[in-house]
Amino acid sequence: MTAAQQMEQDNIERELSINVGSMVLEGTLGLPRDPKGLVLFAHGSGSSRHSPRNRYVAGVLQSRGIATLLFDLLTREEESVDQRTAELRFNIGLLAERLSGATQSIMCNPDVKGLAVGYFGASTGASAALVAAAELPGVVAAIVSRGGRPDLAGEALYSIRTPTLLIVGGDDKLVIELNRQALAKLCLPEKELVIIPGATHLFEEPGTLEEVARVAAEWFTRYLARPGLARAQASAHRG
Fold it and tell me: For the chain, which ranges sit under pLDDT 70?
């Protein structure tokens, strides 16, 4: 058995319910042996915790020793409404509130209590991640956006004090420009825009999602390993 196969065998997946106010959201917690951080996934428009792209990235993070939480930002009833109207997936305030609540809830889970926390957001989920991080200063140690719409985070962009990586496909021209504009509004040194050549919005081209996962894993490994620095920076900016 190779080291990679042994690591995969050591990973544990647990289905769990997450209490967020009066809501109960369904999630999947992925636990490698001795995790060194926890990444919560905020999925994008019309997606769910079963998104194959996010599940792939989660698997790569777990192979790097990072626990993951994929969960549904909407209840089943809300998802049914959203499938007909597509209105809730663009309600950034609601999605950010759910992500913030889920963060505070999962941080009490004994399996991951005390771990540094990161956010991985896709599409509109990326803007929700940015807004939630702004509302939880000193709590979130790293953010990665995949094909995200950080521009929808609005004024929250100026309040972000969390190291932020924006990943966009090279053929996703409009989203590249929106990400460049958002990057300019982030008032922190630890920010970066990575453009994956030949990739469209969903990173369906061969090798492109693998590159997303590699770059994201490196970012989380770097910043989740030193959450104290992120919190110190956040405190300094608040002061």
Answer: 1-9, 44-48, 87, 226-239
CATH number of the 3-238 domain? 3.40.50.1820
How far apart are the C-alpha atoms of 163 and 6, rounded to whole Å?
Answer: 31
Written as six digits, the tokens of 180 are 């460049």
Q: With b meaning 16 or more CB within 10 Å and e meaning fewer, what string describes 118-157?
A: bbbbbbbbbbbbbbbbbbbbbbbbbbbbbbbbbbbbeebb
pLDDT digits (tens, 9 = 90+) for 64-84: 999 999 998 887 787 777 777
Q: Identify the residue whose tokens are 């958002």.
A: 182
* pLDDT (0 to 100) of residue 137: 87
- Residue-range domain boundaries for the chain: 3-238
CB 69 within 8 A of CB 104: no
